[in-house]
Amino acid sequence: xxDIRKTIVVAVAxxxxxxxxGDMPWRLSTDLKRFKAMxxxxxxxxxxxxxxSFGKPLPGRPHVVISRHATIEQSDVTMARSFPEAIGIAxxxxxxxGQIEIIIAGGGEIYAQAMALADRMCVTHVQTHVAGDTxxxxxxxxxxxxxxxxxxxxxxxxxxxxxxxxxxRRSA
Length: 172
Description:
alpha/beta; 4 helices; 8-stranded mixed β-sheet
């Protein structure tokens, strides 16, 4: 059992959509500010397509990018060929920097693999249905317990209101 907490961070529409055409299908400035505050300093595990959607490494966070083929030559980016390798690298980076948590931030394939292994999920439930090509796995209430819930009205730079929910894995 690892001493490093594995946390999924995701924004998901009511119909399960998290992405469209390599980007998020909404503008949620309020949520992006929360994402930055929650992830600063912590290793960020992402797939190559998600990393490319950022345009450049997000400042203040070591990135572990998963790709079977691509190589990204950037400072603050470590490549991994598989999800298990990425988790191992991120845990090592967390220990080296005194962090107790790694963040798993997408995309769809990465989230699907992370569901069995994550300890915690921070989910922004976007209160809309949108068209998209990438989805988040359904959250099984038998496996996950809500420990915090906050309704967030749409701010002036947000397309939709949201509900921010923190889930913790139920003990076996």
